[in-house]
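Usage example:
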Amino acid sequence: MSDVLGNPGIPTNASDSLAVLEKSRSTAETFGIPLAVLLEITHRCPLQCPYCSNPVELDRSGKELTTEEWKKVLSELAEIGVLQVHFSGGEPTARKDLVELVKHASDVGLYTNLITSAVLLTRERLSALADAGLCHVQISFQGVEEGLADRVAGYKNGHRKKLEVAKWTRELDLPLTVNAVMHRQNLHQLPDIIQMSIDLDADRLEVANVQYYGWALKNRAALMPTVAQLDECTRIVEEARERLKGTLAIDYVVPDYYALRPKKCMGGWGRQFFNISPAGKVLPCHAAESITGLDFESVRSNHSIAWIWQNSDAFNRYRGTGWMKEPCKSCEFREIDFGGCRCQAFALTGDAANTDPACALSPLHETIFKQAEREAEGETSRFLYRNFAGGTLESGNDA
Amino acid sequence: MAGPRNISVSEASRPVLPRHAKLKYDETRKVWVILAPERVLAPDEIAVEVLQLCNGERNVGDVADQLAAKYAAPREAILADVIVMLQDLADKGFLTEAREKTS
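Running the assembly step on the lines above writes:
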């Protein structure tokens, strides 16, 4: 088995007794079974965040895998060597069988993380999840005060509910991560979001700048931060990390539009990560279905998940470096960033095999950067809310 | 409420892995791992042995006693190494102390 699955990337540095277990890292062609898998168990969600990472074409509830199908998936993941699963969505608590799924994941030895908006949780249900073996809770926040936070989420009284659930989480002795999605309209609240995380007794804070695919790309003009805002954000994060060492860990994601090098998206296509969609498609990333012309295998097919990961066309199409064109092909960074993000390359250039325009070496970089800068300075602040109907424009005036 | 943060490991501490950090043998990769939120740590053999002894009942001194006897090694050197390793884990947020008994 270990030969087939490749090099798991075990650290060799003997001097560090607690090295981080790296995902496969050596050469471009190795890809072990991922350590962690994202399970988008439903696309249903009461919130309507305009930067939702779900595809614009959402899976309807009738297409969702059944409880038994998800349990089979969980058993199979544990068997092939996956160690952690993230229950995500949509809103994972919208599934009535969540406690049963978490229990099953724990029974087969998986470390379980719940990525939730929290607004549907009761204290009883959270307690049942804890009893089922849930290891960690991540709650998304849209701001620090109701006015803005509820407007971004398109959900009344959501912020108040999130604060309440965060409190229960800690009372139940579950570790808490605050996930704060940042953009032009809420970046000024970052210092208060850091303080809110401390007050909530969170262990971790993710300061995640919006990534501009799918819904967020449709809302880019309303969300894109200015360069000055982003510089200030970085300064605040760095200062807080130093001040809060040992109290609050802060993860930081910047929007790649303002970078010179693209991000190593997903650690490279099909190298360290896959996710499973509500309908059971095994995907190289949560936005992969936005690339037309790729067929994604389903867990409902006759193939095992390990087979799909290793052999399916969709995973092999952009795996490694063989698919690259110039300027990636001869680039010295090709195994560092793998040409950036395939979904972004497709969305902005029409060809997923092109260099991600976030890279300064892309011929389109300059154009797109300038356009983003213009949008960031612009007046548009109205959202297109995410929903199954293809989006609804926020009412009221542009202000 | 949860166990304390920012703990300072000493001979008298009774450390234990918190609920969100799980020590487990990974059968696929043939390696011990500590599973934590968004992280997988790979403890070395000695760290694994120490952590298996840290059950919230034994204090760090007891752990050093056991290892010194098992390996016929000087206790003071082992104690110092154990404290450094555990403090490193504590600083990363993956170690807590057993709550005081209320009796």
